[in-house]
Amino acid sequence: MTLGPLMVDIAGYELDSEDRELLRHPAVGGIILFTRNYGDAEQVSALIEAIHRLRDPHLLVAVDQEGGRVQRFRDGFTRLPPPGCLGRVHDHDRKRALHLAEVTGWLMAAEMRAVGVDISFAPVLDLDYGVSTVIGNRALHQRPEGVAALAQAYQRGMHEAGMAATGKHFPGHGAVVADSHLELPVDERPYEDIAQWDLVPFERMIHAGLAAVMMAHVIYSNVDPNAAGFSPFWIREVLRHRLEFQGVVFSDDLSMAAAACAGGHEDRARTAMEAGCDMVLVCNQREPAAAVADVLLDYINPVTHSRLVRMHGHPTRELKTLRSDPRWEQAVAAVQGYEEMPELDLG
Questions:
Q1: Is the pLDDT of residue 299 over 60?
Q2: How far is it, in rounded angstroms, from Cα 21 to Cα 270?
Q3: Is 252 a catalytic residue?
Q4: Which of 12, 157, 166, 327 to pair with 199, CA 20 to 30 A apart?
């Protein structure tokens, strides 16, 4: 059975009959887990094992485990600082920052792989322009060179732990104020400015073997009238042709308010796939997710399937074994030591 082009979610700690029916739908290829799906490490490991048993090859299991404000699994896992803390270290000690970025990428991915998660949608490759209400210290640095260097080190750590990296949000979400979860951001900069700044981390990460990209629900009005995740120009022309990216293209969640610019959920999914996405996400809305699954039932693309299969995580150790490794203890100590102002993350 192939992996379909749709990633969905579930409501609770366990699979119910409705969940199983949706996850067995041929158009579904992945599931993303949220905080509501996490009780403790043992529970989530059992949940993921149950998900794996539904299909062969097993569904991709994803989570957002960036650190800081965006860390879905907390109790029982290492608390990760906001990625922007690495940028502050970078400003004073570049060599140490790159080492810490690699250690953080390894620790995050090793813990996620230990419970069966294939993908953590990280690292964020947006620049921190100091204006975004949703990016902020999720960004690694203010400048493209800093983001690129730290992200490449972070990716090396992820790869060593058996997880492919996903850069987001292409072509760059950091220069707009609006939160695309709540409204449609519009970036009025010309293409040349975006290319000289925001595209640099993506280009360098692609050259370093980036496996996947997640699109931004942002309209770049002086470049293309469509939001990037629905834009053949941004996906096919810029990402695939100019940057020569060969990996997976994920949409951002099609249930976000900004995605309404492409119509209803079914239209959003069709438009995103036609623009060049390999997999679309529909989260927190079961009925639209099921409707999108039916719309994408006949979508079969061997190239897309081969890209998605490569996102499966590599074999790894169980969490108990990982925690007995001195390297894990050293990594935890290193990560806990570089967040200068932990109170910034209380929200």
A1: yes
A2: 22
A3: yes
A4: 157
